[in-house]
């Protein structure tokens, strides 16, 4: 078996932790380096026992990353930090970037395989990994995209791991206790991302709640022609047939159906307005199908490896 070497920049973060676990679970990938400025010098296995190679975290500059012999680099950095690494890394090395920095760049491949396909990913060297809410919203919108009349409205609630590890009100457990915090009422990046990639006009209102991980997106859609509940469910089942990471259900999924699970659940399918008003509920784990699992799908497709099967996260 050919083993491909992968480097991870941003290994200390929430998504970095899941990526270490997912890379460690594969026999066809070897972690070549794990970069963290704060944890430099500490054994990776101290934080991620799945990595058994004795590797230590290193604080790597873009130039140091570019000097490493790797097939791929995953960037799990905050928004706005990827560019120096992208500029330094060789063109034939696969980059999967988890931030929003290249999701609007037409020279990058936007990697959401269940909606936009796998063909473009197999030869891709620059892959923009979608946002977590944006994945949930697009999974709800895409199957009926051609049937829409007007805007799609996505009401999203995320666990506070979505706000990363840098302290802010959005991951302050005291501020979140007994609370639900709306933010970015207009123009959120994921609103722009969903609009750009689905081609529908999307309105999106994010909220953060006191649970750690998981997202629920409740999406309101107006249909050009009335549909029945069975017909709607058939459309979604057809759209995601054969996709192990998207489950379609008539039930209304809840956050705990998606938290720690590798894939998404899409369901509910409420119909009102004489069959014109459709409400779809999608749930997923923001750190998994919303980030690390999706990044692994994109990475493996680009490297010509099997996408693999994913288990629930024990973290
Ligand atoms: N959390 C989610 O649910 C989620 C979902 C989808 C996408 N994303 C995106 O994924 C990316 C990572 O998110 P996260 O939640 O894992 O973030 P995080 O928990 O805040 O971790 C950020 C990581 O980047 C490193 N870092 C921070 N600033 C850096 C800089 N200027 N240069 C080099 N390293 C730097 C940090 O480690 P050191 O400080 O030790 O170097 C840390 O490892 C973000 O762009 C986020 O938008 C997150």
3D structure, described in words:
- This protein is of the alpha/beta class and 315 residues long.
- The protein has two domains: 4-130 and 290-303, Rossmann fold (3-Layer(aba) Sandwich); 132-286, Dihydrodipicolinate Reductase, domain 2.
- It contains twelve helices and 14 strands.
- The chain has helices at residues 14-24, 44-47, 62-66, 83-88, 113-116, 119-122, 132-141, 173-176, 189-198, 229-239, 255-258, 288-303, and strands spanning 4-9, 29-35, 57-58, 72-75, 94-97, 109-110, 126-128, 152-158, 180-182, 202-209, 215-222, 246-249, 264-272, 277-284.
- The strands form two sheets. The chain has a seven-stranded parallel β-sheet, with helices on one face. It has a seven-stranded mixed β-sheet with strand order 9-10-8-11-14-13-12.
- Strand 12 (246-249), helix 11 (255-258) and strand 13 form a beta-alpha-beta unit.
- Helix 1 (14-24) packs across helix 12 and helix 7 (132-141) packs parallel to helix 9 (189-198).
- The longest helix has 16 residues, at 288-303.
- The two termini are 29 Å apart.
- The protein binds NADP nicotinamide-adenine-dinucleotide phosphate (NAP).
- NADP nicotinamide-adenine-dinucleotide phosphate binds next to helix 1 and helix 12.
